[in-house]
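Workshop exercise sheet. Pairs work together: one partner reads the sequence aloud, the other fills in the structure field after running the prediction. Swap roles for the next sheet.
Pair: D.N. / O.F.
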Amino acid sequence: MKIDTACRKLIEDFSARPTLRAGSLITTVFGDCIAPRGGNIWLGSLIEAMAEFGIGERLVRTSVFRLARDGWLQSEQIGRRSFYSLTGQGRERFDQATHRIYAQPQIEWDGRWTLLLLSALATGDKEKVRKECGWLGFGALSANVLAHPSPDLADLDITVRRLQVGDTLVVLSGQTVRNEAGMRRLTHESWNLADLDARYSDFIRQFRPAMQALSRNPQVHGKTAFLLRTLLIQEYRKVLLRDPLLPAELLPTNWQGSAAYQLCRNLYLAVFAAADDYLDQSMQTADGPLPPPSPLFMRRFGGLSPEMSRRASNG
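Structure field:
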């Protein structure tokens, strides 16, 4: 199978879903492509890019309106053109998601747990903390205790501040001192690892043909690279943001998340540079073409470079 054929098959599968999540895909484009390059885009550029996925202009306009209404985006009118950029809250949330999506898996663990005690919170605040900290990977050990073995404490601080629960949420650190086997069982019960494992397997099945095609012929057109890179991160983040990112010693044997990460990393390395060339040519901001990616962008998946891109394409 050639890479163009593999990419076309991915787009067909995406477009054939009963519910076409245009807003979700636009969020992926902003997070993967626009945020690291200034965070500002002309609506017309976005409409043209989304058309490649079978998403029409009307749906794009409706979706960005909803993202703006929900506080993710803000608009600016210059002449007859509309430009969209991330709000402060939107950028904060994108930054938090970026840390998780493109980070390397955690191998080492000191055996300690971070615990969140919710008992002093109002009922409404408890629900907010469960939801928002769930996105950070915390699982429920009981009705009023959330736990994670290795959370990003900076992201936790941002979330606590945003939810305004710093005076009532108690954050503790602890360690298992007896019955480690029981703690492992409780871990598997607190996070639905079997479901995540199956989702990672589906992701591998979806994108392995594209990796195989690039291994045979690493040449890829810019538009195809952009489409593939976008769908890759779209599908990976849908699983990854459900994943608590537990240390390796707490995971089941033959955990498919490890293979999914390697596939996503290798495929991203193989296409990111060509996709960026396409973005240079096709996307416009209020000040002209997109600016170059920030230095943080080049740290994704352990480091990006054209040389690494060539090595990834060759398997």
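Discussion prompt: Residues 309-315 have pLDDT under 50 and may be disordered. What would you look at next?
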